[in-house]
């Protein structure tokens, strides 16, 4: 019917404008972040890199950043740690993070458990060591809300916040935190783009259609985690397409 054809044309036009605008946007982010920086992505569990940070990782790739990944646990809450470590490496390969730049911490100090509060000083010490050893000049992690409210996510923010406020970060090292949004915005996918553009103060990464497919492939590497509600998450979450971040 004519209505269906018109809807298809409008949708195609929207996607074309969206892809074109993101190419322009990547140049704008390059001016703000600088090209070819050394970036450390600090996450709490295997799958965080794809479930929450894929737009940032792929956006940084456009800017030719060298991305290091530090995962603070093996995700062993359901005794799947060994499987999840392998899945993380597969996901990083899809996202273009060199496996030589991936570090997974698997010890009792940082258990995958929302009921356990990680020690802020210990997390900060480990973070600082990796920042200094790898010459990092940009750290990316969760904000105070942890996106999902998980205590392990929030612990990473508390640690990097402490390093920043106490002046312990190396000179020239900046921190970006991933903005948490309310549940409604979280699950309206690309429809959140106008609000993201309106409310983002510092950095906004939006994936084009090719990159969205890449992000979904990365998330699909985490086969042990692909329960029905996570499949819905992949379809509807704005974090599979959009990341808005703020500098500390």
Summarize the structure.
The chain is of the alpha/beta class and 248 residues long. The chain has helices spanning 2-33, 48-51, 54-62, 81-95, 120-133, 151-165, 183-186, 193-199, 209-220, 228-236, and strands at 38-43, 66-71, 102-104, 138-142, 174-178, 203-206, 242-247. It has two domains: 1-33; 35-247, Rossmann fold (3-Layer(aba) Sandwich).
Give the tags:
10 helices, 248 residues, alpha/beta
Structural account:
There is one protein chain. Helices cover about 50% and strands about 15% of the residues. It is α/β, with parallel strands linked by helices. The protein has 2 domains: about 1-35; about 35-245, LmbE-like (Rossmann fold). A 7-stranded mixed sheet has the order 3-2-1-4-5-7-6, with helices on both faces. It is globular. The chain starts with a helix and ends with a strand. Mean pLDDT is about 90; it is low at about 5-15. Pfam families: PIG-L. It is a single-pass membrane protein. It is an enzyme of class 3 (hydrolase).
């Amino acid at each position: 019917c004519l209505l269906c054809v018109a809807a298809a044309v409008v949708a195609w036009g929207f996607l074309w404008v969206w892809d074109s605008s993101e190419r322009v946007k990547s140049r704008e982010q390059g001016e703000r972040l600088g090209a070819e920086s050394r970036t450390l992505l600090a996450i709490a569990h295997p799958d965080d890199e794809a479930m929450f940070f894929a737009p940032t990782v792929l956006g940084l790739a456009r800017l030719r950043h060298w991305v290091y990944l530090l995962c603070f646990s093996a995700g062993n809450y359901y005794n799947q740690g060994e499987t999840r470590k392998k899945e993380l490496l597969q996901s990083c390969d899809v996202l273009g993070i060199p496996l030589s730049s991936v570090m997974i911490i698997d010890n009792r100090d940082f258990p995958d458990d929302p009921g356990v509060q990680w020690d802020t000083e210990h997390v900060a010490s480990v973070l600082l060591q990796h920042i200094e050893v790898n010459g990092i000049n940009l750290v990316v992690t969760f904000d105070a809300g942890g996106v999902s409210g998980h205590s392990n996510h929030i612990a990473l923010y508390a640690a990097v916040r402490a390093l920043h406020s106490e002046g312990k970060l190396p000179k020239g090292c900046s921190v970006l935190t991933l903005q948490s949004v309310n549940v409604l915005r979280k699950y309206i996918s690309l429809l959140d783009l106008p609000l993201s553009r309106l409310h983002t103060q510092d950095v906004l990464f939006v994936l084009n259609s090719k990159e969205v497919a890449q992000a979904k492939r990365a998330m699909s590497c985490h086969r042990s985690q692909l329960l029905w509600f996570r499949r819905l998450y992949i379809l509807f979450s704005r974090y599979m397409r959009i990341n808005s971040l703020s500098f500390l």
